[in-house]
């Protein structure tokens, strides 16, 4: 993905951000891997 920008991963230590092109997102389907995981609500800052 780096050369074409299809999948970019940002690792901030405490959390990771995945940025996908639609085609790559459908192919890897990470939501399927994590669908049973506990959701963590992140409050909005005021």
Q: How are the SSEs ordered, and which strands pair?
A:
Layout: E1 7-11, E2 16-20, H1 22-28, H2 30-34
Antiparallel strand pairs: 1-2
Shape: extended
Structural class: alpha+beta
What's the total number of strands? 2
Radius of gyration: 13 Å
Strand ordering within the main sheet: 1-2
Instruction: Please give the oligomerization state of what you see.
Output: single chain
Count of helical regions: 2
Mean pLDDT across the residues is 87
> Secondary-structure element order, as H and E?
EEHH
Largest sheet: 2 strands, antiparallel
Model regions low in confidence, pLDDT < 50 over at least 5 residues: none
Helical fraction: 25-40%
Count of discrete structural domains: 1
**Gap from first CA to last CA:** 35 Å
Report the sheet-strand fraction: 15-25%
Can you describe what's shown?
This protein has 46 residues and is α+β, with helices and mostly antiparallel strands. It has one domain. It is built from two helices and two strands; from the N terminus they run ββαα. The protein has helices at residues 22-28, 30-34, and strands at residues 7-11, 16-20. A two-stranded antiparallel ribbon has the order 1-2. The N and C termini lie far apart (35 Å).
Task: Name a few traits of the molecule.
extended, 2 strands, two-stranded antiparallel sheet, 46 residues, 2 helices
In short:
With 46 residues, the chain is of the alpha+beta class. 26% of the residues lie in helices and 22% in strands. The protein has a two-stranded antiparallel ribbon.
């Amino acid at each position: 993905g780096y050369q074409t920008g299809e999948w970019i991963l940002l690792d901030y230590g405490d959390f990771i951000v995945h940025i996908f092109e639609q085609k790559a997102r459908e192919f890897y389907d990470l939501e399927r891997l994590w669908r049973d995981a506990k959701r963590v609500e992140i409050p909005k800052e005021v």
